[in-house]
Design goal:
The protein is an all-alpha fold. It has one domain. 67% of the residues lie in helices and 0% in strands. It is built from three helices and no strands. α2 runs antiparallel to α3. The chain starts with a helix and ends in an 11-residue tail after the last helix. It comes from Streptomyces solincola. This is Kanamycin biosynthetic protein. InterPro entries: Antitoxin_Rv0909/MT0933.
């Protein structure tokens, strides 16, 4: 079992808490960098949520 699989197993059932943590950490980075990298931070947040946070049975978010 890879490290990524172990992390996913530990986080299973706590998707909403993961989403909150990803948002909070992204907001922290945006604040510390003055929003200079907000596009990259937003992209990274979405990828992290897709990988670890969102429930696979849930509909994916719509991108605007």
């Amino acid at each position: 079992m890879s490290m990524l699989d172990k992390i996913k197993a530990k986080l299973k059932g706590h998707e909403s808490q993961v989403d909150k943590g990803v948002e909070k950490s992204g907001d922290f980075v945006d604040k510390r960098t003055g929003g200079k990298y907000s596009g990259q931070v937003d992209s990274a947040q979405e990828r992290m949520k897709d990988e670890f946070g969102r429930d696979p049975n849930q509909d994916p978010p719509t991108r605007t």
